[in-house]
Each structure stands twice: as C-alpha cells, then as structure tokens.
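Hey, I was hoping to borrow your eyes for a little while. No rush at all, and the record is pasted right below:
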Amino acid sequence: MTHIEHTVTIARPVEDVWAYVMDARNDPKWMTNVIEVGRGADQPIAVGLEIEETVQFYGVRMQTTYTITEHDPPRRSAIDARGPAGVGGTGSYELEAVDGATRFTMATDTDAHGFFKLAEPVFARMARRDLASSAEHLKDLLETDAP
C-alpha cells in the first residue's frame, strides 16, 4: 500500500471549495487525469453512491468506479476506487477553514496487484505528480474565478 498526499491553501471559503469538488462533473476541469464522467456524476454525493469516470494514466485509458464511503460536509469525503487489472485503492478530500481561506488536502492509498504491484514505486512517483498537479490546478481555477 502506498500513501500519497498533497495539501494546498485556496483563497476561497470552505463552502465554495466544497461545492466545487463535490460536483463530480467538475472533475475533468481540474483533475489532470480525468477525461470524462459517467453514471452517478449528476447525483448528490452520499455514502454508497457510485460514480464512473474515465481516467487516463500516462496514455492508458481506464474506466474507474468510485464508491463514496464517507461524507461529512463540508469537512471530509472519502471513496473506494476500483479499476481494471487489479488497480484500486482509497482516496479522500479534507477541507479546513484557515483565515477565510481553505486548506485542501487530497490523499490516496493505492492497492496494486500483479504487474502493478511490481511497478508500484514507478507508478507512485507518477501518481504523486498527478495528485499535486490536480490540487494546484484546482487552486488556480478557484482563485482565478473568485468573485
């Protein structure tokens, strides 16, 4: 199991950041590896909801299903992710108000099997870059679009 985490401070109130990241239809706008969203993306987030997304990880397109496992607005949300070929894991968003801004932490724990287990150190480095890039892109988007 590999743990990856990245934190940014976004100059927007927690409620604004929460509303944006809890709408899965926004994922392709700020997540560097999400190409499109499918079933469940237009539903209100609740424990047990399944959301399908197509992701691209270094040229390989994969269908992934995310199941919401925790939902504590506007503080924390967590998922269980399952994809093809033994790729899966868990992830979470944590939000904390800090002087009118939001400390936003994205975390993921990968659970690789087979070939992916052998290549886990390489994939972990690539995933670490993607996670950081997505969080920083979210910060740029929300601060640029601030009222």
The radius of gyration is 15 Å. Strands lie at 2-10, 34-37, 50-57, 60-72, 76-82, 88-98, 101-110. The mean pLDDT is 88. The CA atoms of residues 87 and 112 lie 5 Å apart.
